[in-house]
Amino acid sequence: MIAVSNMRTFVIGDIHGAYRALDQCFDRSGFDSRMDRLISLGDVCDRGPEVSKVFEALLEIHHLVYILGNHDFWAKEWFTTGQVPDVWYFQGGRHTINSYPHGVPESHRDLILNAYQYFIDANRLFIHGGIIPGVPVEKQDQNTLIWDRSLVSEALSRRSKGRTDAITGYAEIFVGHTPTIQFGSDHPIQACEVWLMDTGAGWGYPLSMMNIDTKEVFRSDPVTQLYGSNLYNNFNQT
C-alpha cells in the first residue's frame, strides 16, 4: 500500500448495511476518499437494508483496508455460490439478499473475496473478532479471527479491576464484533490496549469511526432514526 503525505487513517466498526450512517460518519469526519485511509473492521454485510450501497461507497475509497467479519464470511458464500444457510438468512442475511435484486456485481464479489483476515500497521493490530494471546497472529485460524471474544473479555475484566497492563505485545488492537451496547455504552470502549469499535449500528445504535492517531470519534445518528426501528427488532447478538 502506497503511503500518502498527510493521509489520515480512520477505523470504523461494524457497518451492517447502514449506508446512511456511514455517509454521516464520512461527512462529520471530513473523510477524503482519495487521500485518507479507512480500515473497516468487518461485518459490512447483513441486518441493514443498504449493503450494496455500502459496498459502492467502499469501492470509492482509494486506500481501503477491509477486514473480513463473521457476517461477511456468511455473505461471501452467497456472493460466490448462491447458497443461503438458515443461520445466515435469519441473522440478517435476508437484508443482504434483498439489497441485490439484480444480482451481485463482480466488483462487490472481488472486494469481499480479497478482504483481509487481519491488518497490522505500526504495531497496531486490526481484526474483527479477536486473537489468542501468545500465538502469532499469522498462525491463528480464521474461526478465531472472526468469532473470538476471549481477548475482549480479558481486557474488560482487567478494566473492571482498574488494570491497564497490556495483554499482548501490540501497542493497540482495534476490534469489531462485540457490541459496546452489551456493556452500557454506544461509544467505543478502551480496555488495556484493546479498542472496541462496534457501537451497535447493527441493532439500531450509532455507527462509530475513529481517527486512530488523534482518537477523535465521529458518530452517526442512531440507525433506528435513519431507517426506522422495525429492521432492528428480534436480532440475536452474533
Keywords, separated by commas or semicolons:
single chain; 238 residues; alpha/beta; five-stranded mixed beta sheet
Number of DSSP strand runs = 10
**Helices and strands: which structural class?**
alpha/beta
Rg from Cα: 17 Å
Question: Order of strands side by side in the largest beta sheet?
Answer: 3-2-1-9-10
H/E series, N to C? EHEHEHHHEEHHEEEEEH
Number of helices: 8
Morphology: globular
Q: How widely separated are the two ends?
A: 32 Å
Hey, roughly how much beta strand do the residues contain? 15-25%
How confident is the prediction overall: mean pLDDT? 94
> Spans with pLDDT under 50 lasting ≥5 residues?
234-238
Helical content stands at: 25-40%
**Major beta-sheet overview:** 5 strands, mixed
Please describe what this structure looks like.
- It is a single chain.
- The protein is of the alpha/beta class and 238 residues long.
- The chain contains 8 helices and 10 strands.
- The strands form 2 sheets. A 5-stranded mixed beta sheet has the order 3-2-1-9-10. A 5-stranded mixed beta sheet has the order 4-5-6-8-7.
- Helix 3 crosses helix 4 (86-98).
- It is globular, with a radius of gyration of 17 Å.
- It starts with 8 loop residues before the first strand and ends in an 11-residue tail after the last helix.
- Residues 234-238 have low confidence and may be disordered.
